[in-house]
């Protein structure tokens, strides 16, 4: 596989595993302090990864430390993503939060590209652009029904709705920034494994502090149950994050963002499989608009700027190589 194809594999691995986690394991995680679980899962896996990198490729850690501004940006954006997202979930409908969060990431990447950030890639083709326009319409519709009280859940009236929408937007912008910093460090020679270990120190400190303060306390904790949840988290929380880190190094940021925008659709499909789909009618309308745009944007993202898919592009290259080899062979015979 070439890099774009591998990037698609890693990107879809992230999207599908994240959706499966939200649907099939969401209830399990709700019984425990989310900050404690996050701090434990990402703390242990990041520490293990850093030890492995220190032994195998210590020069990558030196490179990252020499670029402390980007390293701090990676840490800060990672911490802000989860903190803002968690508090947004407490204020407005989770389906709205997840959908707006997913849809605003590629928009934030495009804004950064327009501002001249080199790691923020522009649109690749018109198909991707049309899809993202529809995504924006869906996101705007969901924001409007939330402010008007037509969504499934708002805690605290219009003020809480506005706060939830702002936190959701902040979370999306933070993830876009994380992609940009990850891409920058990758170009400097810091591989995905090293970046995974380096991006979580600030988040772990914040998460464990929040757990100690009891911001998401669920009462007495069963040590055996907590250990089981943390072990499960290694597979369905840590691995998807690593999959995204790999995808960042293999594909353009806007294409990755367009593919991650498919997350809400996979959640919806998994909920149909599970037999649990209950959205307010207005929310369902917004999701339908969003899904159409997300599918179109992801399809466009998997194509080259000239409109050909990766598979067709590879066939064209192979065909041209065959022609050149045939010409050389004919010349040699003459």
UniProtKB/TrEMBL annotation:
<protein>
    <submittedName>
        <fullName>DMT family transporter</fullName>
    </submittedName>
</protein>
<feature type="transmembrane region" description="Helical">
    <location>
        <begin position="250"/>
        <end position="272"/>
    </location>
</feature>
<keyword id="KW-1133">Transmembrane helix</keyword>
<feature type="transmembrane region" description="Helical">
    <location>
        <begin position="160"/>
        <end position="181"/>
    </location>
</feature>
<keyword id="KW-0472">Membrane</keyword>
<feature type="transmembrane region" description="Helical">
    <location>
        <begin position="129"/>
        <end position="148"/>
    </location>
</feature>
<feature type="transmembrane region" description="Helical">
    <location>
        <begin position="95"/>
        <end position="117"/>
    </location>
</feature>
<feature type="transmembrane region" description="Helical">
    <location>
        <begin position="65"/>
        <end position="89"/>
    </location>
</feature>
<keyword id="KW-0812">Transmembrane</keyword>
<feature type="transmembrane region" description="Helical">
    <location>
        <begin position="193"/>
        <end position="213"/>
    </location>
</feature>
<feature type="transmembrane region" description="Helical">
    <location>
        <begin position="278"/>
        <end position="299"/>
    </location>
</feature>
<feature type="transmembrane region" description="Helical">
    <location>
        <begin position="32"/>
        <end position="53"/>
    </location>
</feature>
<feature type="transmembrane region" description="Helical">
    <location>
        <begin position="225"/>
        <end position="243"/>
    </location>
</feature>
